[in-house]
Amino acid sequence: MPRHSGWISAAKLAASVVAIMAISGVAVVAFAAVDLVSTATTAPTLTLENEQILEGVPDIGAMDGGLNFLLVGSDKRPDDGAFGDPEEDSAVLNDVTMLVHISQDHTHVEVVSFPRDMLVSVPECPDPEDPDGEPLSALSGVKINTVLSYGGFNCVAATITQLTGVPIPVGGIVEFYGVAALAEAVGGVDVCIAEQIDDDYTGVHLEPGTQTLSGMESLQFLRVRHGVGDGSDLGRISNQQVYMSALMRKLQADGTLGDPVRLYSMAKAILANMSLSSALQNPTVLVSIARAVQEIDLSKVAFVQFPTAYTSDQSAVEPTESAALVNAALQADQPIVLDPASTDESEFGTGGDPATSAPPGPEAAEGGTGETTETTPPAGAMPTDVTGQPANEVRCSTANEG
Fold it and tell me: How many domains is the chain built from?
């Protein structure tokens, strides 16, 4: 958003409050909006170089055009020691790095997750400790989760831009308690568990079936790695996609994205628990972004794992040739179409919903042959090493057999 003087910004916020009150017809929103504005003006701010792209975004209603949003999950431990010694156990790593792409015509969304151990090249970045001084040197062959501690959030954004070829004007950092607060704000998320999951590292113990997760339970589920998939970060990404797709289904089914009161609750949680780039400090911008995706068909919301393969020594992963196809789709603002077989065939993938899966074998129907019927990938589908799931597809977290 363009920068304004203090009184102009205050006038815009006041006008937004009046508009929200008129839409909702609920007097309590007036008090909520005042509280929200107060939160927005005191929350920590990040700055990104591409913010000028947002000039002209409306205050109320769906935003015009598309958007690329960078979400970083930091492993910085809170000061209360609930997740370990903040001095000994924290390295301020971007263990979760996601690029959210909303198309120009608001018909599709891609959420691309980048594995934390993926090797990347880092461009020259401003030093967050001395922005006007000598920039930090460019790097090559470093794990992406070290970029946040090296050059700050803006350097992570520059690295993803260099990797994918798309500009990133907005983004934010969320830490442990922020994830729990967001889950609480939406009233919990129903996730499918294919088999017993036990992970002593995060304290996750979940029985098979549909489980409703909220607050700290959601945080631990999103953190679990050793107990799901193949026990790696790739398995954790697939697990996170189970949760995020379930969250999208809930938000659309409940009408949350079209309800100003519920949007307030979510925006409040976001502003209170995340460090956002300065263009997002105005709560009406958050509402306009939410309104942009409220009518998108869930089959057109794709959660994608950036395609990688292990290095020869198994210590890291690096992008495969298919990564260029993912980048090209993002640059051209084209939907990323996934092969339905890709995640099923992946060793770190998730499972289909047992309640909706057709029974296999000759018992499924009289006269059946028992032969496996191969499905034809959709036109324009990505290669099978591009895994993920559309938001309308119910998938289940699978346990790590090891």
Answer: 1
Quote the domain boundaries for residue 163.
43-256+297-382
Query: Which carries the bigger pLDDT value, residue 11 or residue 70?
Result: 70
The DSSP secondary structure of 57-89, one letter per residue, reads --SSSSPSS-EEEEEEEE-PPPTT-BTB-TTTS
User: Do β-strands 301-305 and 109-113 pair in parallel, antiparallel, or remain unpaired?
Assistant: parallel
In a domain, 273, yes or no: no
Q: Would you state the structure tokens that stand for residue 340, as one six-digit string?
A: 């339905």
Mean pLDDT of 61-90: 68
Q: How big is the chain by its Cα radius of gyration, in Å?
A: 21
Work out whether the CA dihedral 177, 182, 183, 187 comes out positive or negative.
Answer: positive
2 has a pLDDT exceeding 60 = no
Asked whether the beta carbons of 160 and 70 are under 8 A apart, the reply is yes
Tokens of residue 66, six digits? 């598309």
Q: What does the pLDDT look like over 15-60, one tens digit per residue?
A: 444 433 343 333 344 444 445 455 555 556 676 766 665 555 444 5
| SS3 state of residue 16 | helix
Q: Is 1 domain-assigned?
A: no
Looking at residue 385, its amino acid is D
DSSP helix/strand/coil, 28: helix
Beta bridge partners of 205: 198
Taking the model in full, what pTM does it have? Answer: 0.80
- Measured N-to-C along each axis, helices 216-223 and 233-253 cross at an angle, to the nearest 10 degrees, of 140
197 falls within a domain: yes
Given a cut of 70, whether residue 347 has pLDDT beyond it is yes
Confidence of residue 252 (pLDDT cuts 50, 70, 90): confident
Question: Does a structural domain hold residue 146?
Answer: yes
Enumerate the β-bridge partners of residue 70. Answer: 99, 171
Total Cβ atoms within 10 A of residue 333: 16
* Most confident of the ranges 61-65, 99-103, 212-216, 362-366: 99-103
The residue-averaged pLDDT of 360-381 equals 52
> In the chain, what are the helix, strand and coil shares in percent, each to the nearest 5?
35, 20, 40
CATH classification at residue 191: 3.40.630.190
27-62: buried (b, 16+ CB within 10 Å) or exposed (e) per residue? eebeebbeebbebbeebeebebebbebbeebebbeb
